[in-house]
Design goal:
Layout: H1 39-42, H2 45-51, H3 54-88, H4 94-113, H5 121-139, H6 144-153, H7 163-192, H8 196-205, H9 208-233
Helix pairs in contact: 3-4, 3-8, 5-7, 7-8, 7-9
Length: 253
């Protein structure tokens, strides 16, 4: 009797599962998260700053040419036109809408009082309020420049725990307070002198150009604070630097 030495056939291999995931391109780089817009970009960029001065120019020119009612109509038409243009160009309309609201309130005050110079009255007193609030924030050790900058950029509140970082933002906040105080002093003097045309000029010149210079100081404070916190995190000097692992108990005091 001869035995069959041939082995039974192997079972058929199961087919590999078909992946439904799309193939990843060779050498592809994961997409980076979208960068957070800067404070200037959130206000509409440089063009947004320029657009928001146009209603003031329209009011001053309209008042000189056609009187109070012509000035109010000119300012409102220009503010509305700015919003339409930004909407048509698919740009952020928030700055334009804020400007339109401000023009409407200022024009309403001017129309209610019957005086063209009162168009600037709200801005004058808001400047005084800004100077007071900014100065008070430094006195209570919560400099507003640091609070707003780090809230907008998402940097957190670690800077508040360091005295040097707070000093940087104190300088920036007091610079902003000086800008607002200067606006109030100059424009209030022009208001008392019934200089409506010069009031408009002062509002433009002491507006975003002067504020832009103050924001440079805020940016300087932010850079110095970031470098300071990075150095402290790395243990390079400062009050919060970590002690050496090899130091004895006496050395750590």
């Amino acid at each position: 009797m001869i035995e069959n030495s041939s082995s039974p056939p192997a079972p058929a291999a199961k087919p590999a599962p078909v992946s439904t995931r799309p193939p990843t391109p060779t050498g592809s780089v994961p997409a980076k998260p979208a960068a957070r817009p800067s404070p200037l970009e959130q206000w509409g960029g440089t063009s947004g700053m320029i657009y928001m001065t146009l209603p003031v120019i329209a009011f001053v020119v309209g008042n000189a040419v056609a009187g109070l009612y012509g000035a109010i109509i000119a300012a409102m038409v220009v503010a509305l036109g700015v919003a339409v243009v930004r909407l048509a160009r698919k740009e952020s309309v928030a700055p334009a809408l804020n400007g339109l609201f401000g023009v409407a309130v200022a024009a309403g005050i001017s129309l209610w009082t019957g005086s063209a110079k009162n168009y600037f009255l709200l801005g004058i007193w808001l400047s005084l309020a800004g100077a007071v609030v900014l100065t008070a924030s430094v006195l209570v050790r919560r400099p507003l420049a640091g609070l707003l900058w780090n809230a907008v950029t998402g940097k957190g509140s670690a800077w508040r725990e360091d005295r040097v970082c707070r000093r940087y933002y104190d300088i920036a906040t007091l610079t902003l307070a000086a800008v607002f105080a200067a606006r109030f002093v100059v424009q209030q003097w022009l208001y008392d002198s019934d200089e409506t045309g010069w009031l408009g000029f002062a509002k433009i010149v002491m507006g975003y150009p002067l504020l832009g210079l103050a924001l440079l100081v805020v940016a300087w404070a932010a850079r110095r604070s970031t470098k300071r916190l990075a150095a402290l995190e790395a243990g390079i000097g400062g009050q919060r630097s970590a002690p050496s692992p090899q130091a004895g108990p006496a050395d750590r005091h």
